[in-house]
Amino acid sequence: MQPHEHARFDAPELAVVLSHYDLGVIESVTDFPRGSRRSPKVGVVAERGKFLLKRRAVTRAHPERVRFIHKLQQRLAGAGFPVAKLIPTRDGRYTFVQVRDHIYELFEFVAGQPYRHTPAETRAAGLLLAKFHQVAEGIEHGASAITRGDYHDAAAIRTGLCAIGSTLSSHDSFTGDQAELASLVQFLLEQYDRAAEAANRLNLASFPERIIHSDWHPGNLLFRKDEVAAVVDYDSVRLARRVIDAANGALQFSMIAGGDPATWPDNLDEERYGAFLAGYESLLPLSAEERACIPPLMSEALITECVPPITETGSVGQYAGFRILLMIRRKLRWIEENTARLAANAAK
Fold this sequence. Notes:
With about 350 residues, the protein is α+β, with helices and mostly antiparallel strands. It has 10 helices and 12 strands.
């Protein structure tokens, strides 16, 4: 598979997998190239409805973990959380199909609109994250069913940043910019360290662990009339501090982006930032220390977002890695300069 190419199903594979489900006559199967390129999806129109079939990436195809995630989704659904319904196998015994090293999941298709960047949608997204935390709290899990760790103070992020400077300087996306790359990477390392130290001083490690979503961003939510119609991806669920989720969500739902990264503004949309956290706190209030952690954790999350794709491909989606790093440097400076106001806004 090429670096930017999505994995795909082949016809015999689809025939075998779909034979495990009682869908009636299959009318059409259409590629659905969204989300992780390692996890192919197809839309299925059948006699009994519309569905989405997903093959998990091999790195996330661990049966015990998948069972736990499905248990979590079913608990969420029982609490009225907007989850796409899991379709059981023909005999009703399983919620996924395993064929050799691959695991397949079939969901009822949910119609919805992408995020339109309105304060009402943003507040709804914050409120729903709080509901996720509330419903997921205390759910039983085996030791190997859930991951620990997150983007805070992570050695892997520092290693990845160093790799950008040392092994990717000759990559096409950095051609002509090698001289500035070293100083840019050094700045990002220093900012990551400074943000991690700030969160540590606020006793982040003392906050209780709980099940968090860990990938709460607009691409994983569908909307309908300013409300969330469905949350569609639970692959990154893990044990960590809830403010890790709240900070990443506040960042993702307040980013101003689009077009050439060089034209993206330095600032975040503070109205949406406030709306997201107000929605969250309308159900689950944050402590003063948690609120103070949000700006430095956003800085860590912003750096973390770019490191894996750039170290792997030299780019982030369609954008050259160097241009993304320049944009991130500007936004990190803005967050640091406005930390006091952002923390105060989080307390409103």
